[in-house]
Amino acid sequence: MTGKKVTKSLARTEKSKGAKKTPPNKKAVRPTWDQYFVSICEMVGSRGTCDRGKSGCVIVKDKRILTTGYVGSPPGLAHCDDIGHEMHKVTHDDGRETMHCIRTVHAEQNAIVQAARNGIALFGSTLYCKMTPCYVCAKLIISAGIIRVVAMKDYQASKQSKRIFKEAKVKLDILDEEVEKY
Prior knowledge:
This protein is of the alpha/beta class.
């Protein structure tokens, strides 16, 4: 650059430094990290292939998504939406009986399996889901080294899951204490 060009360039820079800044009209309201990942969790759940369980799961570490999962049949097997449900009677500790579709894999299970298939370590991560995970999912969450679970709602049969999360020191945050009827 010649001397004149450098001087003009510096003069422009000095002018821009002294320019008045206009205040923003209104500060944007950003969702919290939990709100952000929960909303993604809902979108992931919309891919579910069982109309009884449109649940999604997002597993995150350091504010970055590691893996996702939704309720669906294992790869290559028929979906409930295509051939119907495979219902199974479950008797709970209190003697109550409920019917569950067992054709599909839970969202939490699918997210953990996807991580395993892709070589992604989940140790120290946070799992976001629709409702407090079932007992089987809770055991897998603990075994995977996940340290926090954020559930949108509670689950009607969450007593055992809550107990083992507490024993394993997995932090459980339920955003809405309403019990999801499933």
